[in-house]
Amino acid sequence: MTRRTVRIAMNGVTGRMGYRQHLVRSILALREQGGLDLGNGETLWPEPVLVGRREHALRALAERHGLTEWSTDLDAVLADDTVDIYFDAQVTSARVDALTKAIAAGKHIYTEKPTAADLAGALELARLAEEKGIKHGVVQDKLFLPGLLKLKRLIDGGFFGEILSVRGEFGYWVFEGDWQDAQRPSWNYRAEDGGGIVVDMFPHWEYVLHELFGRVTSVTAHVATHVPQRWDEQGKPYAATADDAAYGIFQLEGGAIAQINSSWTVRVNRDELVEFQVDGTHGSAVAGLRGCRVQHRSATPKPVWNPDIPVTESFRDQWQEVPDNTEFDNGFKAQWELFLRHVTLGEPYHWDLLAGARGVQLAELGLRSAAEGRRLDVPEVSL
Q1: Strands 36-39 and 42-51: what pairing?
Q2: Sorting pLDDT into bands at 50, 70 and 90, what band is 304?
Q3: What pTM does this model have?
Q4: Contact of 74 with 95, CB cutoff 8 Å
Q5: Who's near 13: CB < 8 A, 6+ residues apart?
């Protein structure tokens, strides 16, 4: 079998998401399985070049995983003609400059979201990439979660009839950092550093809604900073200037309504950290990260409102679990495989920088809707 090597500059892999999901569970997992089978007796071998600002962290990470290439000099890495792809998982505020440099250097681009701080910047990246003729992709990992893949199967099979509404609940309690360490970095709660749950999560909701149910045509949002003070990684208190909860209503093309609550100040009373309930004329489903339960109209009970007597039935037990019917890989790894095949074989791929710009647009309009207290239309974006 012939082995083809692809060299990937990976910037931001000392961070939580860049390390766990992209380096360990995607690129290193591909290496552990012997590379990516391209067919016709050819295997693609990903060779990561670790990039970051902290030399000691990069060296330790490389030694831990038996990697030999790392650098704190992004410009030098981008000037290396043997590097094929630039991947970015940095903090949002550093992303545009790095992606712009990588595009100018002619590298193919794969990046976390949001791609920019505003729609103008996101569209400019997409325009530059198109003009340069490079291939580009944006991480849209939730589309590859087992629960949402099962939901997509139901939609494609016509299970719901006419889809009427989508209700989403996402979030968990992120500790303030004083008496227990926070599970998320402190910059997430500082607007001046690109933090905020709208900027973080509305891009996710845009592609989930767009891909499964239809384009978002309007948004109404209310945001809050419920916890005004937090403690950083050094145990120092700081003012939380970014929103830590958002309550959004989205009108979808075709008429369905989506309501999604996003919060880092909620204690979980559901089966998974994110759940979407979809109600249609013929049936309903509740999908999470991995599971998906359904209730068809032929099996829908007839509840009667009577607050004077205790409930004698378990409503959850009236739903049926959707079987896996296949094996599900890590969602980040699955999308990496598709992007690598797109780069090396030219296979179709539509989760590009323009798709990423739609997510930035929805976050921007969501914040504006909250500030102005009104519903805003979401126009289609184009270059």
Answers
A1: antiparallel
A2: confident
A3: 0.95
A4: no
A5: 19, 22, 23, 48, 50, 51, 52, 61, 89
